[in-house]
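Q: Fold this one first, please.
A: Sequence and structure below.
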Amino acid sequence: MTQTTAGRPTNEPAQRKQRAQIKARTLRTDRWWLAPAITFAALASFLVYGLWAIFDKSYFVEPYIAPFSSPCLATSCPEGARFLGLAPFGDWWTLPPGILILGLPAGFRMTCYYYRKGYYRAFWLSPPACAVGEPHKKYTGETRLPLIIQNIHRYFFYGAIVIAGILTWDAVLALRDAQGDWGHFGLGTAILWINVVLIWAYTLSCHSCRHITAGRLNHFSKHPVRYKMWTFVSKLNSRHMLLAWLSMYSVMLADLYVRLVAKGIINFPFA
């Protein structure tokens, strides 16, 4: 038995008193940097495209409206692009329509548990990978601005439900032709519907949605309907990472397709 510096006995060997001093940032020999590098490139490409799309004016062509510019809520929007034919923001709003609703889908994804892991590692290197030291000397978690905003993820989830509903309505309108008759089904219609399915799957697979459905129940047997909902959401939740990536690129590709059609770059009979 050895003695501690305070004179108290301890069974710990003397050689274990000092923590190993490792100067290397990591002892890993694999390509640990590859995953955060790919994540950085993927998220950065989405951010660059989103910035361009918001200020691009070619966002509507009958019967399609680009997802990044929906809903269109000002009189500056083309008449057919206005959500439910309304323009509650009137003439005073002259900025791109996407800026009006940008905060809801952007806030939902920025505060998403999976995306937090992704951009914390890829952009802030906090940490860049498991068993790799980070360059930050101080850690405050999500207790201060701006990261304390992450705690309102649930409220962004409610906003994301609204946006998913609007995109669903846009996909329904994509079943009409330029004359307003139902029965149109072009490539753009299929793309918008695929995007809507993935957006709903990603939104409902959210951890907050899983908690809302039955997170506080003590007895599933007393709430069979909520238990069924929880089971369904839990299955989606196990694919949350995959759905996050698929929905991110589906909304980007759907948006790009509509803009290319509106610009006349894509022009064929079943566009």
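Q: Good. Now the second chain.
A: Here it is, same layout.
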Amino acid sequence: MRPYDIILKKRNGETLNKEEIEYMVMGYVNKDIPDYQMSAFLMAIFFKHLNNEERAILTEIMAKSGDMLDLSKIEGKKVDKHSTGGVGDKTTLVVAPIVASLGVPVAKMSGRALGHTGGTIDKLESIPGFKTSLTLDEFFENVNKYKIAVVGQTANLAPADKKIYALRDATATVDEVSLIASSIMSKKLAGGADAFVLDVKVGSGAFMKDIDSARELANAMVGIAKSHNKEAVAVLTNMDEPLGFFAGNSLEVLEAIETLKGNGDKKFVELCLTLSAWMCYLAGKDSYEKCYKLAYDSLNNGDALNKFKEFIIAQGGNPDVVQKPKDILPISNNFVEFKANKDGYISKINTEKVGVACNYLGAGRVKKEDKIDHSVGLEFLKKIGDKVSKGETIVKLYISENSDVESALNLLNDAYTIGDSDVQKLDIILDIVK
């Protein structure tokens, strides 16, 4: 078997078998196949794509290239939630305690911020004392005792994907549905959950910019899950504007706590309840409609807030953050304002630019080694469809001495479009793929 023949076969649009895909993937991981041949292989896939069977094979090979977590020590059916990334996406901080409060185990390994999207682990580390690293035994014990644990991805999950993704990033082969779906689902399968709820973002702040490509990705990921005898539901959600009122680590924890107290943004609450209901449904709790009602009740009767406090205590965090978050969380007291330059209506937001603006303040990272500032971020006072007057504040920027305020303001100026006529406000839930 030669890499040349496999590259040629895929370049010609033929279907690869398991032995051929495994030869290329593991040959590259083991350094038997050089970058230039793997690059050619990825480019052939980019233009000719993979069919459903090839996607499932590639996913399995990458998943099994490292640790495969066994969650059998955790009681009950384990359902994982995954978001494809967005701006202001703090849903795990609300969804996890809702679901756990209903007796469904949440055993979650989350990532850190990279690029214009935030990371759940960075947000949790805004809470003084909170530990995002637990031993596997501690992880299992917390989930069994409290029904919830959220930790960083410390296990050696899907190393083949990590190495291949770095090459994709350098060779303009990132945005191909088969490769995206296989990359995401290889880590999900290695994580050991029984079922998956996939939050697929759509719009200017998302990886998939339009509904058709997002639906294609959702179908691909659900298909991969089913081919490995796992249940999955994909929820297509709008990312043509930031999610909720805040972006930035401490600020998003603050918003999550306020949401758990019943003071959340209406669209953000709808998203959290929808994702929670699907997680409970896949866990076998009840019908989707009844699960939605259970999630709604948990959010509104204080059960989810109490579970969040229990979760914070269990992982070493300061529980006072629940009652007085503004006193406990590191939030900057220094701010500047981005203001409207004319009268009109917010008609469009380039959400990716908003996310990058947040990074300029220090809230994110370009490279994994970069340090972040938990105290900085953005507060969104106006959304699409809102009326503004000249000089009125659209975004409040929480800044530090290291923030590049000028670059952030310039990006916000590019990101926001103010039109003369009213526009329709955006729905948050766009479609469901099962």
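Q: Anything worth noting on the second one?
A: The chain has 17 helices and 13 strands.
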